[in-house]
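Fold these two proteins, one after the other.
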Amino acid sequence: MLPKASAGPSPHAEAAKALIGKFRALREEILYFTTDLTDSRALNGGAVPESFVEAVSAAVQQSTRLEQAGGADATMLRDAWAYTVAYEPVVQELLAMAKFLSHSIRVQRNAAGLSALDVYTLAKRLSKRQDGAELRPFVADMRVKLGKKGRPRKANSDPAPATAPVLPAPPAKE
């Protein structure tokens, strides 16, 4: 059975709202955080191995001409790579958190649904009793909202099952 909920506003709504606020506040703490997703396809061009970035960093560090022409210094390149290495586990943790939260929501939805089906079954049974007339409108409303239409009508007669015609077997090849 589910825990009893108060008749007032849901404590879960306030807790969820506060958690969303915390997530949004975290954005401010993450250096280089961006919400601009317009160029996401263009970002695939920079997918290179770490060894390549380090080799370029070393070359830029040794050549002022490369640094000026490329518009990037070795410190910036190494810092950008260090950022990716440091924050990739954070992404994995957030994805895991989202997966587990989604599962937790399904568990609670299932618990509520099963409890509601138990109450519906009990209400149907009680509404059939002589002293259960007050439950009949509730049962009818629940039935509609559940998508049940009532008992299906029986056909007057059972039609004979359709059988496929039997074809003769093809002659055997020798």
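Now the second one:
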Amino acid sequence: MISIRKIFPFFCLILLSGCVVKNVGTTVEHTFKGDYYLTSEKFEQGRESFAREVQENPDSVLAHYYYGRFLLQDNDFELALKHLKKARDLKPRIADYHFWTGLAYGGLNDIKNEETSYRNALKLDDDHLQSLIYLGHVEFRGKRYEQALELYGSALEIWPASPSALYNRALILHILNRTPEERVAWLDYLELYPSGSKGRRAADYLNMAGNYNFRNQTLGSTTVTVEKIRFVPFAAALAEASDESLLLIGEVFQDMDKGTLQIVVYQKNNKELAKKRAIAVKQFLNSELPSLKTREIGVSWFAEPQQLTIKGKKLSVDEAVSFFVTR
């Protein structure tokens, strides 16, 4: 007869293995499903699915974590905090859980606990990108500018294209009146993100700092941010680098029902060159966008700087190309 003592460990091993396989399977399923709903932006489906998971698996870390994430998408910060804290407390050594708990605290305007959560995440992982960025936001809001700059700098070492870190770094340098650094920072942002309201504001700040490599051009009700229109030095020929900006301006005008596109060139103390450059811009648009040949395009030129006023600051640009639409 086989002793029960000999077979008991074997049965325990089978039972434990079954539990491990089941737990691993559940973990993989939750991770795959949660990430799928998040990346495909099926937030409502994800929330409903993980609401059921929390009911069926109340001790599942991932069920609480993903349910909290989907609740954040609904701005249900109070309930999100409850579930994210549960995940964090069940697995306190995971930096992500501290970060998302901090985000829920932030939604409830609990700045102290928000900051603590980000710092705890960074204690576990000093390269936790999201915590670096959002702790930078906390420091920025608290006007602790040097600390914010350090955090944004660390984040940009990990992800050089972080839009919020790039933008806020430049804005802080503007606030601190560190103009040479500010110009570089706005250019770094605009090279990657010239469109949208932030792109327009960034171009304004860049111009106020004395750099005109990007300009806002207002065409009717649309304002587009484009790189400076450049020419071959001492000549009227357009530089190839300006093709993209000119095509964008032409396409915006092309989509307008009516109006006349006005091209104005300013060239300090050289009226003849200003005239030739204005004509060159018109010729380029007609050549590259044939449909514009039937549209009105006006040109004018001045042997003086362009005068601008941005956010109450008066500016003078010695060499510039400006566009606007008249009805």
